[in-house]
Write a structure and sequence with these properties.
Length: 312
C-alpha cells in the first residue's frame, strides 16, 4: 500500500504533527508527504519515515483556502493513487478531508488516535470512555488524526522532493479570502506542541496569574478547562479536552481542575501528570502521577519561589 500525508506547518516551520502522521502512515505503506507550499518548505521535511515529498506550489491555496487545497490534494491523489490519506485533525484538516472524501467517493474517519497496518483507525468517543475501531470500506481510507496521539519517529529523512503544478478550478475560486489576521501570540509555546503545559480550571476563580507565572518559569504553555473558558476567564483556543485541544506533553500540571472525563480525554496521555486540588477526592488524582492537596493560590507561588531559587 502507499500512503499520503498532508504536512503541517506552523509559523512557516514544519510541525511535529507531520512526523506523527508519517509514523502512523508508515505502518500502512510507503509514505509521501504533500506540502501545500514551495520547495523551501518541502526542504524542511528532514525527519520521519517519509520516502517522498511533493510540493504543490500554488498561491491559490492562500487566496481561495480549503477549496484550492482540495484541488491540490486531488491532483496528488490522481498522480499517486494512495490507499491511505492522513491529515491532522484541525478544523481546516477536517473540512479538507470531508471535501476530499466527497470528491474521491471515499470513506472518512475523523479524530483518530491510532491507525493500524491495515488502516483500521482507533477513535476515543464519549469523552474517552469508549474505544471504537473502524475501517473505511470504500475508496481511499481518508483519516484525520488528533495531534499528539503517537510518539513520532524522528529518524532523519532524506526524501526525494518533486513539485506538482495544479490549477485551481473555477468553482473553487468562487469564494476568495480577502483578508486574514494572525492570532495574537505571547511568548509562550504553542499549546499542542509544548513540552510542559500548566492548566487552570474553575478553582482559579478567574485569576490565572499564579498559573501563568508558574508556566512561564517552566517555559511552558498555559491551558484551561472548559469551565474556565466558558466563564470567559481564558480563550477557548486554550481549552484542553474532548471539545478542546489534545495535549501530550512531558509534564502536565492541572491546577484547580476536578478531572472530568471530558478534560481527561485531552490530557491523559501526558507523560507525567501533576494535580493541585484542595479536594482530596477530586477525580484528577486518579490519573495524576503526583498530587498536591492544597489551595493553588498557596501551592503555586511556593512552587514558583522554589523554581526561582533553583535557577538563581
Ligand atoms: C460534551 C461535553 C464536552 C466537554 N468538553 C470539555 C473539554 O474539552 N474540556 C474540559 O475541561 N471540560 C469539558 N467538558 C466539561 C467537563 O464535564 C467539566 O464540566 C469541566 O472540565 C470542569 O472544569 P473544572 O475542572 O475546571 O471545574 P470543576 O469541575 O468545577 O472543578 C474545579 C476544581 O477546582 C478545585 N478547586 C477549587 N478551588 C481551588 C483552589 N483554590 N485550589 C485548588 N483547587 C481548587 C475543586 O476542588 C474542583 O475539583 C465537557 C462537557 C461536555 C458535556
Amino acid at each position: 500500500m502507499s500512503a499520503v500525508i498532508l504536512a503541517e506547518f506552523s509559523d512557516g516551520k514544519v510541525s511535529k504533527t507531520t512526523a506523527e502522521l508519517a509514523t502512523l502512515a508508515a505502518r500502512t505503506g510507503d509514505v509521501t508527504a504533500v506540502v501545500l507550499g514551495n520547495s523551501q518548505m518541502a526542504a524542511q521535511i528532514l525527519a520521519g519515515p517519509i520516502k517522498k515529498v511533493i510540493a504543490v506550489d500554488n498561491a491559490d491555496v492562500l487566496a481561495y483556502g480549503v477549496a484550492a487545497a482540495v484541488d491540490a490534494l486531488a491532483a496528488v491523489i490522481a498522480q499517486e493513487s494512495p490507499k491511505v490519506l492522513l491529515i491532522a485533525s484541525s478544523a481546516f484538516g477536517k473540512e479538507l478531508a470531508g471535501r476530499l472524501a466527497v470528491r474521491t467517493n471515499s470513506g472518512l474517519i475523523t479524530d483518530a488516535v491510532d491507525v493500524a497496518a491495515d488502516a483500521t483507525a482507533t477513535q476515543l468517543v464519549f469523552g474517552g470512555s469508549t474505544t471504537v475501531h473502524s475501517k473505511v470500506s470504500h475508496g481511499i481510507s481518508i483519516i484525520t488524526v488528533r495531534p499528539n496521539s503517537v510518539d513520532p519517529d524522528l529518524t532523519p529523512a532524506t526524501p526525494e522532493v518533486s513539485t506538482l503544478t495544479s490549477p485551481t478550478s473555477a468553482t473553487s475560486q468562487l469564494a476568495k479570502i480577502t483578508s486574514t489576521q494572525a492570532p495574537v501570540k505571547g511568548g509562550r509555546p504553542e499549546l499542542t506542541e509544548a513540552q510542559i503545559v500548566v492548566s487552570g480550571g474553575r478553582g482559579t476563580n478567574g485569576d490565572f496569574t499564579p498559573v501563568e507565572t508558574f508556566a512561564d518559569l517552566l517555559g511552558g504553555a498555559v491551558g484551561a478547562s472548559r469551565a474556565a473558558t466558558d466563564a470567559g476567564w481564558y480563550p477557548h483556543s486554550m481549552q484542553v479536552g474532548q471539545t478542546g485541544k489534545t495535549v501530550s506533553p512531558q509534564l502536565y500540571v492541572a491546577c484547580g481542575i476536578s478531572g472530568a472525563i471530558q478534560h481527561r480525554a485531552g490530557m491523559q496521555t501526558s507523560k507525567v501528570i501533576v494535580a493541585i486540588n484542595k479536594d482530596p477526592e477530586a477525580p484528577i488524582f486518579e490519573v495524576a502521577d503526583f498530587g498536591v492537596v492544597g489551595d493553588l493560590f498557596a501551592v503555586l507561588p511556593q512552587a514558583s519561589e522554589g523554581i526561582k531559587a533553583r535557577k538563581s
